[in-house]
Design a protein that fits this description.
single chain; mainly alpha; 72% helix; 0% strand; elongated; disordered C terminus
Amino acid sequence: MEAVSLTRRKVLRDGRIVVGGGMLIVLALVAIFADWLAPHDPIEQDLLNRFAPRSSEFILGTDAFGRDILSRLIVGARYSMLIGVVSVAIGGIVGGALGMIAGYLRGWVDVVLMRITDALLAFPLLLVALVLVATLGSSLPNLVAAIAVAVIPRFVRIVRGAVIEVEALDYVTAAKVIGAPTLRILRTDILPNIASPIIVTASFMLASAVLVEASLGFLGLGIQPPTPTWGNMINEALPRLRLQPMPAVYPGLAIMLAVLAMNLVGDGLRDILDPRTERAVQ
């Protein structure tokens, strides 16, 4: 309990986690309550108000179809957060399980899993997701599945290394000697002690997932219009970028701030939870 209390104090004193966490909380609330926060219907067209300037009615103006940009940003946050969180959760569960199996069983199981992991890691995350979405189709479930598959190898590699390190400790060896079941050892002796790298990896992968989703939307392979996402909002604004840049600038800023918040939290957690990091918070 003392260690938990000390970690909590370090977290609350870390400016990166406080700022980044605050931004993520606001973003999560916006995503959850998007239907109530959006002042207008995000897909309703009003051609008489095309590219309307900022005003009390349209706080950020309108796009080429007269749709309220603020409303589309708010609803777009829901899809970015939903896809990012669900895909990283699936990737973390599957990749974590495979990493634990590879690190604990070793032998040919480890060799096979790690060669497949190395092959996938040879390709950028975006490229893996792009190929899968292009093959499966650009629906919400396919988008989540593609990003999840792309992040699985990252978790496998991190978790495997952590399991190998923890497995060498005396209490794990003692559990093996007394004949404790493998699943019990993994669940009670190993998993709690590798939670830190999993949490840190998840925070960085969440930022990557948001970027990949936005990139796929920008390329026209994400959720299709008129449903708003930050990526397809930029894509729709491209033809008129020189004359009307703001419809592209606003979603670009939203992506930047979301990824910045996630990376701030990830940096802070890494320094606190990894005692080998030289920049650990004192």
